[in-house]
Structures are given as C-alpha cells and as structure tokens.
Amino acid sequence: MNVLETKNVNYRYPDGTPALEDVNFSAAQGKMVALLGPNGAGKSTLFLHFNGILRPSAGTVMVENVPLTYDKKSIMKVRQKVGIVFQNPDDQLFAPTVEEDVAFGPLNVGLDQDEVERRVAESLERVGMAGFEKKPPHHLSGGQKKRVAIAGILAMSPEIMVLDEPTSGLDPKGASRILHLLHKLNQEGMTIVISTHDVDLVPLYASQVYIISEGHIIKEGTPQDVFSDE
Ligand code: ADP
Ligand code: ADP
C-alpha cells in the first residue's frame, strides 16, 4: 500500500516561480524512499506538500489513500501521521531548552504530562542526545541540532517520517550516524522519505529512488535501476 502519494502535483509559488510540474511520487508502507536532485530542483517544495504546509496548484496529495483536505482539523490529523524534519534545524527549534523543544509537539496534541515526559526521554535517547535536556538548542552543534529536530518529530510517533536533507552540513561520521538511525527506524516499520543531493550515501539504504530536476521527476526505480548506466 502507498502510504504517501502525489498525483500530477503542480506548484507555483505566489511570486509565479514554477516549482513542481506533474509530480507523481509514492512511498509504500515500511519503505525508505530517497528523493535526489540538485539545489533548486523542488525537493523541499514537494516535501512541504506531504503534510499540507503547501497546497498544490493542481493535482492531489494522498496520505494512506485519502486525498488531503485543507481544513484545520484534517491538517492536524495529517501532521500526526506525517512528520517533517526541515532542512535547517533553526526553522524547527525555538524553545528555550532541548526538552521543551522535543515536548512541544506532544503537548500540542494534548498528551498528558507523563506520556510527554516518557516520549521526550525516549526520543532523546534514540538520537543519542540524552543528557542535553536543559541545554538551549542554539548552543548545540549543527549535527546535534539535527538530532534534536529528529527527536521532536519522533516524539510524535509519526507513521511516516520525511526528512529534508538530513545529512547536509554534517561530517561523514555525523551523516552516517543519522542514516544509521533512519535505517533502524525503517527496519522497525516506519516509512521514511528523505531528500538529498548527495548521491553517494543514501541509495545504500533506500529501496526506491526518485530523481527530480527543475520540478520534474526524471527517473524513478530501485537504486540499481536508477544508477545503472543503461
Ligand atoms: P530544493 O529543495 O530541491 O533545493 P526548492 O523546493 O527549495 O528546491 O525550490 C524549487 C524552486 O522553487 C526553486 O526555483 C526555488 O528558487 C523556488 N522557491 C523556493 N521557495 C520559494 C519561495 N518561497 N518563493 C518563490 N520561489 C521559491
Ligand atoms: P566520539 O564522537 O567520541 O567518537 P561516540 O562515537 O561514542 O563518540 O558517540 C558520541 C555520541 O553520539 C554518543 O553520545 C552517542 O550515543 C551519540 N549517538 C548515538 N546515536 C547517534 C545518532 N543516531 N546520531 C548521532 N549521534 C549518535
């Protein structure tokens, strides 16, 4: 089953910039899917459609086979299913401390204090950031910020986790740790979608790859399909 799908999605920014054209993308349940493409190709724009932050100019976005509707209540629900980790953690981390940041989502959906605390502890442990609870996020390194941003999404227990350039700006060790974590989450059953412009790392883990260029999907298939010289 496809848990995430776009059908002929077109998007044009309000200033007229065309960013996506007839994009058909899907992620099957429990898979890890990679979206590759150069800067400006439309990766972030596509991802912002997955939980209704952007609304297509034309076409349809479907989560668990249900077309998104854009009323407040449906969007709240979709955001619990589809968690997006932004490319720049500074867009996501704004609370005074790491633990408050990670707690924000779970509190926002009305979970009780004990459950929130449990999820915060578990998520920070998962990403290797236990012990940083009281630190202000802006004192952390780039890699640590990314891990806290991931923890904030994990704490929501989404069914689908979407990460925009999760390894960008990290050293090779940091990047491989993040990928290792994503691989593990995927093996536990979470559907993972990531974007990258680094062709080397990600295809090792992804079972399905899409290549986007200038707003068009130009190739899709298994890593072997996509990277073989036909
Ligand atoms: P990528 O994530 O692959 O780097 P983006 O989705 O950010 O690509 O950008 C796709 C296209 O949309 C680019 O031409 C970019 O300049 C344009 N774009 C991105 N954000 C905006 C915006 N807020 N307003 C207008 N154009 C934008
Ligand atoms: P060093 O940087 O000295 O080699 P380690 O490799 O032992 O230290 O790890 C440094 C920290 O990174 C540890 O606290 C480890 O738990 C943590 N870590 C664990 N999982 C991850 C992860 N998925 N991403 C990044 N760091 C992680």
Automatic annotation (TrEMBL):
<keyword id="KW-1003">Cell membrane</keyword>
<keyword id="KW-0547">Nucleotide-binding</keyword>
<dbReference type="GO" id="GO:0005524">
    <property type="term" value="F:ATP binding"/>
</dbReference>
<keyword id="KW-0813">Transport</keyword>
<dbReference type="GO" id="GO:0006824">
    <property type="term" value="P:cobalt ion transport"/>
</dbReference>
<keyword id="KW-0378">Hydrolase</keyword>
<feature type="domain" description="ABC transporter">
    <location>
        <begin position="4"/>
        <end position="230"/>
    </location>
</feature>
<keyword id="KW-0067">ATP-binding</keyword>
<keyword id="KW-0472">Membrane</keyword>
<comment type="similarity">
    <text>Belongs to the ABC transporter superfamily.</text>
</comment>
<comment type="function">
    <text>Probably part of an ABC transporter complex. Responsible for energy coupling to the transport system.</text>
</comment>
<comment type="function">
    <text>Part of an ABC transporter complex. Responsible for energy coupling to the transport system.</text>
</comment>
<dbReference type="GO" id="GO:0042626">
    <property type="term" value="F:ATPase-coupled transmembrane transporter activity"/>
</dbReference>
<dbReference type="GO" id="GO:0043190">
    <property type="term" value="C:ATP-binding cassette (ABC) transporter complex"/>
</dbReference>
<protein>
    <recommendedName>
        <fullName>ABC transporter ATP-binding protein</fullName>
    </recommendedName>
</protein>
<dbReference type="GO" id="GO:0016887">
    <property type="term" value="F:ATP hydrolysis activity"/>
</dbReference>
<keyword id="KW-1278">Translocase</keyword>
